[in-house]
């Protein structure tokens, strides 16, 4: 064998590729694959909620009744009956959503990427919450924006902070109003109305990313901003948290002018989201299954959250604070200002406990004394054990 065959190729990467960084969460998930690790890290739905038998039955019917169509190429916009179902689902509170506004995506992460492609130019301002979803930052960063952080408080994004000076030249405002990742905050209805009113006149779209809205523990969801301004809000949704993330089915609801450009961008990306999985989702949900299935998810997550909050109360030292979420999958923890959660993570992993440090969730000016805990995949006894270990490590630093 020629010696040159053993050498790694030296190829020129694009400037964009050289700037890429790995997701902190994705890297942590590699550690959590060890069975001895109590992981509060990944925002993974509980496998106990996956309706596997119903999906098997749906798959069998599809492959029996329409195998050719299910296994063939299909329209970029998505499977029409599924798009019609989504449009009908969101046509509430007087809003009329059309299937022509719905684009089925390969997970809502692809939706973020498509929005970045069609809206963001290098150095253009992009408005984000403080903190915000790490996956959105990672996706938008491919298009080299200049992030502008919008002030938040315990109730989420503060609409009054969106002054003309702050929003000048902005290409989009990105927000998660329901049980935000990472903080678990839910935006009050008054603030939703304010943002919907802003969207009606703003020269940029307001992006409402809503993967967790169905997971309110009381079963009393607040109206979407989409329902308040259906021709001005861009809404992102997903079946990952209410069915199964492995299906990779998400969607964008957008005004038709933007929808057309998103379709063109998706054509260049993957032609279309897999036909088979789209049909499985539609077959499962078309007869009202979610109306009985989602309440079981809420009940499980409510109990898991209660166990996490009780453990934090029991074990955490003075100087540590956290929110009490009304839904979703996350508790946001604030440590004393001198404690760096990234360094804390190294010690925690050595004690077989994992979490996500808060710093990567900030577009600018990271607060390193924060961390995110996900509770939905850990049994209550293990929640107690993991929080106790973590609390001991924090106590040694306080």
CATH fold annotation of the largest domain: Aspartate Aminotransferase, domain 2
According to CATH, the homologous superfamily of the largest domain is Type I PLP-dependent aspartate aminotransferase-like (Major domain)
As laid out across the biggest beta sheet, the strand order is 2-10-9-8-7-3-4
Beta-strand level of the residues, as a percent range? 5-15%
Q: What topology does this entry show?
A:
Layout: H1 15-18, H2 24-32, E1 38-39, H3 52-65, H4 67-70, H5 80-90, E2 102-105, H6 107-119, E3 125-129, H7 134-141, E4 146-150, E5 152-153, E6 156-157, H8 164-167, E7 172-175, H9 189-201, E8 206-209, H10 225-228, E9 233-238, E10 250-253, H11 256-270, H12 275-285, H13 289-315, E11 321-322, E12 330-334, H14 341-350, E13 353-354, E14 356-357, E15 370-374, H15 380-395
Parallel strand pairs: 1-13, 3-4, 3-7, 7-8, 8-9
Antiparallel strand pairs: 2-10, 5-6, 9-10, 11-12, 12-15, 14-15
Please explain how this structure is put together:
By secondary structure, the chain is α/β, with parallel strands linked by helices. It has 2 domains: 14-50 and 291-395, Alpha-Beta Complex (Aspartate Aminotransferase, domain 1), CATH 3.90.1150; 73-287, Type I PLP-dependent aspartate aminotransferase-like (Major domain) (Aspartate Aminotransferase, domain 2, 3-Layer(aba) Sandwich), CATH 3.40.640.10. It is built from 15 helices and 15 strands. The chain has helices spanning 15-18, 24-32, 52-65, 67-70, 80-90, 107-119, 134-141, 164-167, 189-201, 225-228, 256-270, 275-285, 289-315, 341-350, 380-395; strands at 38-39, 102-105, 125-129, 146-150, 152-153, 156-157, 172-175, 206-209, 233-238, 250-253, 321-322, 330-334, 353-354, 356-357, 370-374. The strands form 4 sheets. The protein has a 7-stranded mixed β-sheet, sandwiched between helices. It has a 4-stranded antiparallel β-sheet with strand order 11-12-15-14. The chain has a two-stranded parallel ribbon with strand order 1-13. β5 and β6 form a beta hairpin. α3 crosses α12 and α13 (289-315) runs parallel beside α15. The longest helix has 27 residues, at 289-315. The model has no long low-confidence stretch (mean pLDDT 94).
């Amino acid at each position: 064998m020629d010696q040159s065959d053993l050498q790694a190729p030296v190829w020129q990467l694009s400037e964009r590729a050289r700037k890429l960084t790995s997701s902190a969460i994705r890297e942590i998930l590699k550690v959590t694959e060890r069975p001895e690790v109590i992981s509060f890290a990944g925002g993974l739905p509980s496998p106990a909620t996956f309706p596997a038998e119903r999906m098997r039955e749906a798959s069998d019917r599809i492959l029996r009744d329409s195998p050719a169509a299910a296994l063939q190429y299909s329209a970029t916009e998505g499977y029409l009956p599924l798009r019609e179902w989504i449009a009908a689902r969101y046509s509430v509170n007087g809003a009329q959503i059309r299937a022509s506004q719905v684009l089925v995506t390969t997970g809502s992460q692809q939706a973020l990427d498509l929005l970045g492609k069609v809206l963001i130019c290098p150095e253009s301002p992009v408005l984000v919450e403080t903190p915000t979803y790490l996956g959105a930052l990672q996706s938008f960063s491919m298009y080299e924006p200049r992030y502008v952080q919008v002030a938040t408080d315990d109730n989420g994004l503060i609409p009054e902070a969106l002054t003309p000076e702050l929003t000048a030249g902005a290409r989009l405002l990105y927000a998660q109003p329901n049980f935000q990742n990472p903080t678990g905050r839910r935006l009050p209805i008054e603030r939703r109305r304010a943002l919907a009113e802003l969207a009606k006149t703003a020269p940029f779209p307001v992006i409402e990313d809503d993967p967790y809205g169905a997971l309110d523990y009381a079963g009393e969801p607040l109206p979407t901003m989409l329902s308040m301004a259906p021709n001005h809000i861009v809404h992102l949704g997903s079946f990952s948290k209410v069915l199964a993330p492995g299906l990779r089915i998400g969607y964008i609801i957008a005004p038709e002018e933007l929808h057309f450009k998103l379709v063109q961008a998706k054509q260049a990306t993957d032609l279309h989201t897999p036909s088979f999985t789209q049909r499985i989702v539609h077959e499962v949900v078309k007869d009202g299954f979610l109306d009985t299935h989602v309440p079981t998810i809420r009940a499980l997550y409510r109990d898991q959250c209660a166990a996490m909050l009780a453990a934090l109360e029991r074990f955490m030292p003075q100087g540590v604070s956290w929110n009490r979420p009304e839904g979703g999958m996350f508790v946001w923890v604030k440590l004393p200002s001198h404690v760096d959660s990234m360094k804390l993570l190294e010690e925690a992993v050595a004690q077989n406990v994992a979490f996500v440090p808060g710093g990567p969730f900030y577009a600018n000016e990271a607060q390193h004394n924060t961390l995110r805990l996900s509770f939905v995949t850990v049994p209550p006894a293990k929640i107690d054990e993991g929080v106790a270990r973590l609390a001991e490590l924090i106590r040694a630093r306080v």
